[in-house]
Amino acid sequence: MRLAGARSLAGSGASGATPVVALVGRPNVGKSTFLARASGRFAESANVPGTTVGAEARPVVTAAGPAILVDLPGTLALDDHPTGDAPFWQLLLDAAPDAVLVVADAGNLARHLPLALACRDLGLPIVLAANLSDEASARGVEIDTGALAQLLVSPVHRTVGRDGTGVAPALEDAVRRGRQRVAVRDAGASPRATIPAVVYPPAVEGRLASETAHHRISPSLGAAAAPAAPLAQFVADGRVSPCGAATIALADLLAPHRRATADAWAERVERRHAMAPALAERIAAASVRPSTGIPLLLGVLAATFALVMVGGGAAAAGLGSAWNAWASPPIHAVVGTLVPVPWLASALLWALDAGLLAMLSVGLPYVLAFYVVIAALEDSGYLASVTVLADRVLGAVGLPGRAAIPLLVATGCNVPAIYATRVLATRRERVIAAFLATLTPCSARSAVVIAALVPFAGPLVALAAFGVVGALTVAAGIGANALLPGRQSPLVLELPPFRRPLLRSVTAKAWFRFRDFVRAATPLMLVGSFVLGLAFESGAVHAFSGVMAPLVHGWLGLPAVAGIALAFSFLRKELALQLLLVLAAAEAAGTAVAAAGAPIALNTLMTPSQLFVYAIVASVSLPCVATFAALAGELGRRTAVLMSVASIALAVTAGGVLARVVGIA
Fold first, then answer.
1. CB contact at 8 A, 203 and 257
2. Which of 22, 146, 495, 616 is the most exposed place for a label (fewest CB within 10 A)?
3. pLDDT on residue 603
4. What single string gives the DSSP state of each residue in 21-86?
């Protein structure tokens, strides 16, 4: 639910007084996990700075009453641009919050309190959640929450978002303060006058008073100031007072004083005890040093590959045997009885028998396995360390190490990876990163490579295919860097601590992502298999194959009919393998429905060398329709078309060269 939905829900009650509570905090402090605990529903989070690039709004019910909870992107300050476009203060005020729940790191208050002070300066009621308090305690840091609450003149709660400790009371206080503000506002009074401001030096207070008295909202007041029109409109709407607007315009002036106040307060309320570095801290430190981090990364990649290969292969074999024994014969019997037209019955069996089996053979064993592994790596915080290691490599393609965030997200799905490019500073960086994200094997494409190659060509060939795809991606990045003028920005990244992945969090992420995959892929798979069945049974497939033969057979060295599966992969990348499996079943049995339980074996359709080329072409070629839509929305349709053409050209060129290297063309 986005912000428009939040405002609609906030006004949907009988009195129209449902408060809106904004979740605010620095990157990777646990806001999305907080949202999941507070709302009782899974939230997409990756334990990587910068992966929340939009506002997520959810209705919640607390002991203080119902409310709308809005999770905003992580930010370092009100004038920061966490999504690459609007400043954070504009995102915050656009949410029209009645209270702000500031999520801070309990182990590092000095760095997190300035943002809480800035929100309080806006005149909004705040509640501070000193989150990650378990990790702070493990490092010997304890907080006097009572003393901090007196300094802030706001409630302070010690919380652990991952297991829910303190989340409900913190949210309850925020909702209660929001309801109080709504009540005062509805009574016609000004609720902002009741919120005390941080006391700054006399000269600064005088400047604020002057700006407030004259109601001036001038963009010339500081480098961080925004155009006057949005601020003036927010003042007119009552979302911020003139004094609050002045604190936004004077952000540069106030920032050092907020930091000084935060340092002084942290020193007063923190008690630190000397502790030996925990094992997680030692591993985290080793993970970012090239001498130890690169071997660790290679080990993680090898373990991921082995887990998916072994686990996915065993599950696929078991599913295939069970389907052929228990599902295929009844499906044939029912369709044969209910559909008397032979060609139509055969086409239906392409979808309901071979199609569904292909869906299960790829989806459950491989895609789900990838989702579980990626979710565990996200939850551990390890992906942020990979970002640091990738800084030098990405420098070769004109990108900062921060660009590793969308590229890592792309290993799960390219669509959120496109949106995650918003964390980059310039359009040039976003274009290059988005292009590389479209070439990065997502879980579906990785499943295509592994499921097509491991059983029939061996794991070493599958590894070689991933190596070729990686080399092509780097080459494409170097080319894009040469064509697009500009320089990369420096890497600025706040590394999270390593954490033990929580089973509940990992299973929730994997399940919700897999559920969305099944919902989207199954209809496409059924329709695609049915259309392919009609074409096969009517003989039209030979006409299509003939048109594609010069390119698919002549240049790529593949069976001409394989081009049909490649073409369908524009709908979803899994179809490149799933429809190929259906075609292989037809090849093996003479027809897809000649015998119940006909085996699906790709080696009846292609040699191992052909499968190698096919897997690479399918992985690199045209992005799926969802990725294309994301590219068009983020970067424009023209850019999306150019990227698609470039990926096709890269896939076809590389495929033809490889076909000649391996001797199939």
1. no
2. 146
3. 78
4. EEEEESTTSSHHHHHHHHHTS-----SSTT---S-EEEEEEETTEEEEEEEPPP-SSTT--TTSSS
DSSP state of 339: -
Helices (H), 484-574: 503-538, 540-549, 562-568
What are 177-195's pLDDT values in tens digits?
999 888 877 766 555 444 4
pTM of the predicted protein model: 0.70
Residue 200 has pLDDT above 80, yes or no: no
Number of CB atoms found within 10 A of residue 567's CB: 17
Whether the per-residue pLDDT at 218 is higher than 50: the answer is no
Q: Supply the pLDDT for residue 216.
A: 52
List of residues 6+ apart from 316 with CB closer than 8 A: 361, 362, 364, 365, 366, 451, 455
Confidence of residue 302 (pLDDT cuts 50, 70, 90): confident
pLDDT tens digits for range 79-119: 887 766 678 898 898 888 999 999 999 989 999 999 999 99
Contacts of 34 (CB under 8 A, 6+ apart): 23, 71, 101, 103, 129, 131, 159, 161, 167
Going 288 to 289 to 292 to 293, the CA torsion angle's sign is: positive
Q: How many CB atoms lie within 10 A of CB 507?
A: 15
What secondary structure letter does DSSP report for 194?
Answer: G
Of 627, 115, 132, 558, the C-alpha closest to 415 is 627
For residues 650 and 375, the model is more confident at 650
> In a 3-state reduction of DSSP, which class is residue 207?
helix
- Residue 18: Cβ-neighbour burial (10 angstroms; 0-12, 13-18, 19+): buried
**Structure confidence by residue, pLDDT tens digits, 19-65:** 999 999 998 788 878 888 887 765 555 445 555 556 778 899 999 89
CB neighbours of residue 174 within 10 Å: 33
**594 with 586: CB under 8 angstroms?**
no
Ramachandran quadrant class, 102 (left: phi over 0; alpha: psi -120 to 50; beta: rest): beta
CATH of domain 3-199: 3.40.50.300
Q: Quote the crossing angle between the two packed helices 368-380 and 503-538, to the nearest 10°.
A: 150
How far apart are alpha carbons 292 and 150 in whole angstroms?
A: 46
**C-alpha radius of gyration, the chain, whole number:** 28
Alpha carbon separation from 117 to 37, 77, 200, 604 (Å, rounded) = 25, 10, 11, 67
Where along the chain do its domains lie? 3-199, 290-661
Name every residue whose Cβ is closer than 8 Å to that of residue 651 and which is 6 or more positions away in sequence. Answer: 616, 617, 620, 621, 622
> Do the Cβ atoms of 426 and 396 come closer than 8 Å?
no
Quick one: pLDDT at residue 113?
A: 95
List Cβ neighbours of 439 (8 Å cut-off, separation of 6 or more).
469, 472, 473, 476, 620, 647, 650
- pLDDT at residue 66 in the model: 92
Q: Where is pLDDT greater, at 348 or 484?
A: 348
pLDDT tens column, 111-137: 999 999 999 988 889 999 999 898 888
DSSP summary character for residue 530: H
Please give the DSSP secondary-structure letter assigned to residue 622. Answer: S
CA atoms within 13 A of residue 535's CA, in its CB half-sphere: 18
- Region 366-395: what's the mean pLDDT? 77
Q: In the chain, what are the helix, strand and coil shares in percent, each to the nearest 5?
A: 65, 5, 30
* Residue with the two structure tokens 């490579």: 449
